[in-house]
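User: Please fill in residues for this 219-position structure.
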């Protein structure tokens, strides 16, 4: 289960700006961050387009343009955890911008008095006017401390696997002794090579198909 936290507040409260700052700080700490923007506006292709005709068949659709890739689906009430698992495989923490209606731990962006009744799960407050004395409360220039709070509350007891195995996109469970053996063996073989000192290492293997079988890949 991934760690997920909402950054909630009203329009123009500074949610996007805060998310950008938190992403940069968390990445510097070696945490792999994913980002989801929750909006109540329509975002799918306009009616009558080729994409819309395919979406009518409930087929997950990807738009591939010159400026990037976007997934589209007709799921109006998707499970947030399944979205993160499907689209953000190698992520430690997911920031959800918005999501006042979602049952998540959250940072409320704006004065404490602006938070409507019934909004729960608030771990901290963040206001452009600075901390208001309601702990834990943060303001501009204190994003580092806020990021540390998020790590402490959501990631402190999280056991991040040091190695993972996927076959044709499906995650394969590794027993601890096998995981340690693979990790130590691969790291030992890579150690003499140049440019292999990064935090994350990916290896892709495409096996030849056995007689009468399909080709397979391991990554």
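Assistant: Residues filled in for all 219 positions:
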């Amino acid at each position: 289960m991934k760690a997920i936290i909402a950054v909630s507040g009203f329009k123009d409260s500074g949610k996007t700006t805060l998310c950008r700052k938190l992403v940069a700080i968390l990445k510097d700490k070696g945490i792999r961050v994913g980002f989801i923007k929750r909006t109540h506006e329509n975002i799918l292709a306009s009616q009558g387009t080729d994409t819309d005709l395919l979406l009518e068949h409930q087929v997950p659709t990807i738009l591939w343009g010159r400026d990037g890739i976007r997934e589209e689906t007709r799921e109006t009430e998707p499970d947030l955890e399944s979205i993160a698992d499907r689209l953000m495989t190698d992520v430690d923490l997911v920031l959800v911008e918005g999501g006042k209606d979602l049952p998540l731990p959250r940072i409320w962006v704006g004065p404490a008095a602006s938070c409507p009744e019934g909004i729960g799960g608030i771990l901290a407050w963040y206001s452009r006017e600075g901390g208001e004395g309601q702990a834990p409360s943060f303001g501009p220039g204190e994003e580092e401390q806020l990021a540390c709070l998020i790590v402490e509350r959501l990631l402190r007891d999280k056991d991040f696997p040091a190695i993972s195995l996927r076959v044709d996109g499906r995650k394969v469970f590794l027993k601890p002794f096998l995981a340690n053996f693979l990790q130590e063996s691969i790291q030992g073989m890579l150690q003499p090579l140049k440019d292999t000192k990064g935090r994350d290492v990916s290896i892709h293997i495409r096996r030849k198909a056995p007689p009468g079988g399909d080709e397979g890949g391991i990554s």
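For context: Residues 138 and 146 are 7 Å apart (CA to CA).
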